[in-house]
Amino acid sequence: MFKKEEYHGTPQTGDAAVTSSQDEETQSSGGSEADTTSKDMNDCIFCKIISGQIPSNKILETEDVFAFRDIAPQAPQHVLILPKKHVGRLADLRESDGELAGKLLLSAAKLAHDLGMEQDGFRVVINNGEKAGQSVFHLHVHLLSGREFGWPPG
Fold this sequence. Notes:
Radius of gyration: 15 Å
Largest sheet: 5 strands, antiparallel
Helix content: 10-25%
Shape: globular
Strand order of the largest sheet: 1-2-3-5-4
Distance between the termini: 10 Å
Low-confidence stretches: 1-39
Order of helices and strands: HHEEEHEE
Number of helices: 3
């Protein structure tokens, strides 16, 4: 019913050869969306990308934020922007994470500008939980551009 983010198939030049399935993500997170903050970061595919254990087509790295091109793009330009700090879902953010949340959105705006997305528009998406399409339980922002997007989404 819901379209899931999937990281599989043949990587594009410079992209990570990342494979993941919803079953693997659910098992490694203890099988519960509510338990995503206690997920072992050693098993988190995005933590491995941030640490360099898995290569990626990185386009931005700051002290707190990491961004790379999605290997299974849903638009001509599809960038994933994530905090370096492991946070399972948007719902797991705390008041003390306010500055980090702001940095994620500011990074999306900067990348949209730097990548020339402003002229034709862009979409920013955050999926929260399995039923919303989240399959990698490390908070991330999708920055998409290069095609027309319908409304309502999904």
